[in-house]
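Hi everyone,

Forwarding the result from last night's run.
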Amino acid sequence: MLPTPGTESSGSLIDDFEGNGKLSLLLVAAYQLFWVPLNAMWDGWTGIGVWYNIALTAPLLIAYYTRPGTLRNAAASIYFIALAFALRFVWSSPVDVI
């Protein structure tokens, strides 16, 4: 995900991401899907946490399969906004919210 120490980049950051870092999107998508059965244990399969984890994989897969540009930037923005919302309102208990 990050370049090895001491290596010099010969291209732009987008080129480096395309060559080396794009796999990280699949790892984060797999991490989101990993939580689906665990959320189902707490809330059942109809709980919002299950469906939010499934929905959060969509922008990651869109960003993985599209070329650099507006659609990838929009997918990344949607993912981070939805993730921030979920961290604040979906996956936090009332005790955690101050």
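The chain has one domain: 13-90.

Cheers,
N.
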